[in-house]
Design a protein that fits this description.
This protein has 360 residues and is α/β, with parallel strands linked by helices. The protein contains twelve helices and 18 strands.
Amino acid sequence: MASTMRAVRIHRCGGPEVVTLETVARPEPGPGEVLLSVQAAALNHLDLWVRMGTPKPPLPHTLGSDAAGRVVAVGEGVHSPAVGEAVVLNPGLWCGRCERCEAGEQSECERYHIIGEGRSGTFAEFVVVPAVCCHPLPEALDWIEAAAFGLVFLTAYRMLFTRARRQPGEDVLIHGIGGGVATAGLQLAVAAGARAIVTSSSDAKLERARRLGAWQTINYRNEARIETRVKECTGGRGVDVVLDTVGRAQWSASIESLRKGGRLVNCGATTGGDPPAALHRIFWKQIEVLGSTMGSQADMRGALRLAAAGRVRPVIDRVFALEDFAQALARLEAAEQFGKIVLAIGDEAREQARRHDGEG
């Protein structure tokens, strides 16, 4: 096995110019860790934030949180996964010893962080990760799809099932369709039998959402008030659940679109983290406002069961070679994608990438 590898790295935080492809030493697994030969790795908005220094990573730093690959070496004390096993990552990192970890709520760990944030990431030919982060690769997913699965499906699953406590027959509003978490949330809502209403400024993205099972679509560029259209769609009642990844821009519309006693679940703030509070509407309508970050091991297993059963499948926007990382990051930053942008790194994934040509 080669003693070096290629990796997408930064030595300082800033714009696109700080990201380079370098040859570096291949890492070795320590106790409780495994070494993966990375077949494919997917991009997330977190990669852009880390590149810009929010949060600031230890430098130099390899970007990337999501990956699928094959175990090629294991550290001391690791009994599973075994060498040769194909795995997909839960990108979360937790202590395993605190009260919340012992309760099975790993994403509520006080020391929780994410691969590619405080620890070297997955945009590389090899990566060392904790063995507990590795889950068996479902046969229903290829390498490209598996790489695109972890962060967004884990996040969306926890939002919908664990935090919002989705009930049969409920209506769900999802903002910003085309983004990874929103698109995963749509698939999960449809798989759960919910009626999903989605928003976007792109008619093309809304058409693709309809093909994925969206019940109603709203182009917010053409609507003075999203909540008016939501109320029309639901016969004046409003939706039961809002899955919000965008924050400020649609906060008021989310509050007004909910029925009395509805639940708003937020996992991000891509349009700003300081929305109007609307406290009088929250208490009058008795709305629950719920935060959600990533997910637990149980959430990951639940999402993977749906994938294994063929009920959900990551939507792939574009696949790039590792050496074309700059184009991939530029597409993500321009918000041009519908679904996930993936780097095909290993030979098997590069071959599979051809099947996904033209999907985006």
